[in-house]
Amino acid sequence: MSQLYALLVGPFADMAGAPLFLVEVLIGGIASGLLYSLVALGFVLIFKASGVFNFAQGVMVLFAALTLVGLLERGVPAPLALALTVLVMIALAFAIERLVLRPLVNQEHIILFMATIGLNFFLEGLGEMVWGANVKKLDLGIPDESFKFAGVLLNKLEMTAAATAAVLVAVLAVFFQKTRIGRALRAVADDHEAALSIGIPLRTIWVVVWSVAGVVAIAAGIMWGAKSGVQFSLSLIALKALPVLILGGFTSVPGAIVGGLIIGIGEKLGEVYWGPLVGGAIENWFAYVLALVFLLFRPQGLFGERIIERV
Amino acid sequence: MIYREAGQFKTTYAADQAIFPIAQDRWLVLAGLVLAFVVPPALASEYWLQAVLIPFLVYALAALGLNLLTGYAGQISLGTGGFMAVGGYAAFKITTSFPALNIVAVFLLSGLAAAAVGLAFGLPSLRIKGFYLAVATLAAQFFLVWLFNKVAWFTNYASSGTITAPPRQVLGIMVTGPEATAGTRYVVALAMVVLFALIAKNLVRGRIGRSWMAIRDRDIAAEIIGVRPLRTKLLAFGVSSFYCGVAGAELVFLYLGSAETLAFDINLSFLVLFMVIIGGLGSILGSFLGAAFIVLVPIFLANAPHLLGLGLPVALQKQIELMIFGGLIIFFLIVEPHGLARLWQIGKEKLRLWPFPH
Amino acid sequence: MNARRIWTSIVAALVLGGPLAATGAHAQAKEMFVPLLVYRTGPYAPSGIPIANGFVDYFNLINERDGGINGVKVAWEECETQYDTKQGVECYERLKGRSGGAVIVNPYSTGITYQLIPKAPVDKVVVFSMGYGMTAAADGRWFPWVFSFPTTYWSQASAVIRYIGQQEGGADKLKGKKIAHIFHNSPYGKEANPTLEDLARRMGFELTLLAVDHPGQDQKATWLQVRRLNPDWVFMSGWGVMNQVAIKEAASIGFKMDRFIGNWWSANDSDVVPAGDGAKGYKGATFHAPGTSFKVHAEIVKAVYDKNKGAGKKEDMGAPLYNRGVVNAMLSAEAIRTAMGKFGNKPLTGEQVRWGFENLNLTDKRLDDLGMKGFTHAIKVTCEDHEGNGPILVQQWDGKKWSIVSDWIAPMRDVVRPKLEAAAVEEGKKLGYTQRDCSKEK
User: Fold this and answer.
1) Cα-flanking dihedrals φ and ψ of residue B63, to 5°?
2) Is C19 part of any domain?
């Protein structure tokens, strides 16, 4: 009986008892969630436009961050370093399209998925070989200070990261809905062959999409790299973004944000209020279970395309 | 010329339905098996046995299990590591609670435990499909690993938090534990893999395999013609988890000797999935080829600089290894998207006609 | 397409032949072989690189300056494990027979250590898990081939509590204080928990255990809980990216960094880098001094770096984990030297080296001769005690470098040793060992 109470009532009483702390937890969740969305965005973009589940997205985040920091370390001024990194990611997109995607056109999704796994290993080795395996500090010029606002502790760096993520997502959403290229991307995502038949240049679209994903990876790499230093574990963030993807839907940009927020908040609330009851460190699987619960009601995610199956 | 099928007439249905209808194939496989049982324990060095052959056999069994689920039944699962963990920890608990029980029986029981867990986590597959299901099975992976970390009962309250394979004998020969020789463990692992591969081959050739493939190809049409999706999918999860559970028990008892939950983490799940995809989805031979590829290529790449006399710093060596490994995966996929098994199949087709082109 | 298929088959065939290369063993005269299991790539590379460098530099120093240990050179070969247990086992199996046979192995990973412990008596290779690995193995009566001196995780935890007591003005002042232990959710991270719980009961402080899931990239929830709890002290058993993120999070919630003590795997240069200025004041436990102000470092520069044989960059010398590697190599070398004192100045077998480890008596005078006065503490290893009951130091980061801010703090042996012995019985029985009688072996 007391266990039931501890499970079902206790945490809520806890929350009510310290409302300001609850606000902090929520804000922490939102900030984390937006950072997850940033990574999930990369997945969504590529899946939306080429139907490929890009296993290498996490390593692309790492690669982008490594390139940026590597250039900064060599004394290249920040704006130039950023521009050069963008160019590197575009070059990478070209290379991927030419060497990996083109030979595998029209293959099954799982084959393309496996190819991105090969890409994952390749970029891992390449990034480390070129830039080294040490932790690198990423200094954004934004001080990592906390300040109190209406009794709640807020962090400047996190606010900036959250704002950037929100802006990026908004820009991308508009891009997909309103521009010609965005429409072409959605056409390609629907059906490669049909898109080809009406004259949409498949290869160009793929390069565009992987480049945009690369730019998103740079943003994600910067935000996450500022928190932990740029190192190999950045590539593991992709695993954290997967529940966001399944919750929001693999093909939806707004889904990435909403999914990120739900997962971020849910995770933090779960860990802080229910975690101590079971010994803590439940964040990892709690996010997946949360996503799973949503999936049972909407099998394609909250905003994902409802796949109409034909027999 | 090589495959002279002329003169091989089948006079019974049973003969016609044999796994290896061509006599040359049959003899080759039998000879291969005999050699596999006899040669390595006698001749191979401990390095070969411990670091190459035993892991190959353990992974091959796990890949077999996952191939049944993903290749034949079409349900992508990333929870393999979790199910192997269930097998490993179940085997540990069972054998420490009932020391007199034969270790092979313990493996089978731990497989059943894993099958039960697999059934539970397979339930979402009725509603969720494709990559969504894959990510949902990750919930199984992370939850199970967390569970084994958290609940000390599974490790018998060991202060070290690891499970160790206790010494166990079969027919008087030490099979697990620090005194078991690599040769003995190899033979046990090989025996189990051969047995389960035979079972798997017969499963997929029969009604069950066909129902799995029907679900994989067009599940709505399958339902219409009378294949029950609930039963079929759950059966696939159950059988696959059974195989993975036994493989997990073998991982702890025959390969590593002791394990902590880190040995069963997400990387293992991905590794087994790679083996299945590279080897060939929907092919029993493919599981073996994929496991061989994934086990042998990194070792080959690690030893190659030594072979070539290049003295590269270890870090650079490892990075080049990773790059070549990734490159090889992409190369093989471009050359033959359906995996190494298909390459083998095409090779055999050519051999059957050789020296004629068609 | 046809040519491609032929190439593919050739590649596939080559792949099968690879492991054949692994059997080459060329014994060199007057050399002893030590395989080095390192992780210079992968998620733990920032920690693995300085350790490996320190190790290699010290062995190079011995070979270059002294011509080896009493004339016998040390040969080593690095093998990359990426901190992965399976790769570690493969490396060990591949290297254990090289060059006449390995005598010592330093796994530098708790997972790999557990794999190698049962193999040690069979292969006759000493497993030297300095300050990590299986704590129970410190009872030499059950594990003759495993050594973990100068100290273990349980002793470290007790010593840290003693330090906190000192800082609070006396052990009795700990009553009622709040101490949090943030740990990596793995057997390694949980090592200190039983000891801490025991001490909490005895000394009356309030202990909160906070697990951080692997890899620990996102610790917002943990540090929110810390904020709510507002502990007086925080002790961390972290590893890899968990360290960097924890320190950054602590700084950003404004936790007083001089109340935050990391264990000796959580207090390296690489851990404080991302937090920048916020990490100032962060403390760490250690069993050797940081920095390059010791004679041995000057000698390494002279004999190794000046001849361009340095393993890493000269600027990276002196990092806590670099010095860790140096201490590890030094202890290995001194153990071999001790063994040579009994068995002669020639390449020794594993058994003989094991004797050397078990009878190591490193005095202050010897440390002085080695140029390590004040660098680490004297230690004596016995048959029962493979831990040596070494004391620890506390170091602090001031934004630019680490400095020692405490005296040598002894662990609470009366608390730790009984539990260690009980654990040793348990772990030893699992592997089917029997307890040996040390008095019979003199």
Assistant:
1) -65, -35
2) no
Which two structure tokens, joined as six digits, stand for B205?
């050739």
What are the chain A neighbours of B334 within 8 Å (beta carbons)? 103-104, 115
Tell whether C399 lies on the interface with A, counting CB pairs under 8 A: no
Q: CA-CA distance, B245 to B253, in Å (whole number)?
A: 12
Give the span between the Cα atoms of A175 and A167, in whole angstroms.
Answer: 12
One domain for residues C205 and C101: no
Coil, helix or strand at residue B227: coil
**A2-12, pLDDT tens digit by residue?**
778 777 887 88
Contact B159 C136 (CB under 8 A): yes
CA C10/CA C12 separation, integer angstroms: 5
Q: Which two tokens stand for residue B19?
A: 């796994």
C209 with A136: Cβ contact below 8 A: no
C25 falls within a domain: no
Percent of chain B with pLDDT over 90: 48
Please give the DSSP secondary-structure letter assigned to residue A105: T
Count of structural domains, chain C: 2
How far apart CA B161 and CA B19 sit, in angstroms, is 45
Please check whether residues C126 and C157 belong to one and the same domain: no
Domain that holds residue A104: 11-297
Residue C126 lies in a domain: yes
Residues C176 and C315 in one domain: no
Nearest to C59 by CA among C29, C101, C89, C104: C104
- ipTM score assigned to the predicted complex: 0.86
Q: Can you give the CATH number for the domain in which A199 is found?
A: 1.10.3470
User: What is the total count of domains within chain A?
Assistant: 1
Residue of B175, B250, B261, B262 best to disrupt the C interface, most CBs of C under 10 A: B262
Partner-chain contact A115 B330, CB within 8 Å: yes
Whether residue C148 sits in one domain with residue C44: yes
Give me the mean pLDDT over the A88-93 stretch.
94
SS3 at position B170: strand
Residue keyed to tokens 């370093």: A81
C144 in the same domain as C186: no
User: Do C172 and C269 reside in the same domain of the chain?
Assistant: yes
Domain containing residue C166: CATH number = 3.40.50.2300
Residue A310 located in a structural domain: no
The band of C12, judged by pLDDT with boundaries at 50, 70 and 90, is low
Which chain C residue has its CA at the smallest distance from B307's CA? C21
CA-to-CA dists, residue A31 to A20, A125, A263, C78, angstroms: 17, 31, 11, 43
Q: Which chains have at least 3 CB atom pairs separated by less than 8 Å from chain A?
A: B, C
**Residue A111 is assigned to a structural domain of this protein:** yes
pLDDT value at C22 more than 50: no
CA-nearest of B60, B97, B65 to B83 is B65
C44 and C169 fall within a common domain? no
CB-based contact A21:A33 (threshold 8 Å): no
- The region that residue B155 occupies, defined by phi over 0 for left and psi between -120 and 50 for alpha, beta otherwise, is alpha
Q: What gap in Å lies between CA B81 and CA B238, rounded to an integer?
A: 15
Q: Is residue C301 part of a domain?
A: yes
Token pair of C295 as six digits = 């004679």
Q: Is A303 a member of any domain?
A: no
Percent of chain C with pLDDT over 90: 37
Q: Is residue A225 part of a domain?
A: yes
Residue type, A162: A
* Domain limits for position C406: 153-288+394-412
B305/B291 Cα distance (integer angstroms): 23
Q: What is the pTM of this model?
A: 0.89
Count of residues making up chain C:
442
Alpha-carbon distance A130 to A143, whole Å?
29
Measured CA to CA, the distance from residue C152 to residue B159 in angstroms comes to 14
Q: How confident is the model at residue C147 (pLDDT cuts 50, 70, 90)?
A: very high
C-chain residue closest to A283, CA distance: C213
Residues C147 and C54 reside in one and the same domain: yes
Please answer yes or no on whether C18 and B300 come within 8 Å at the CB atom: yes
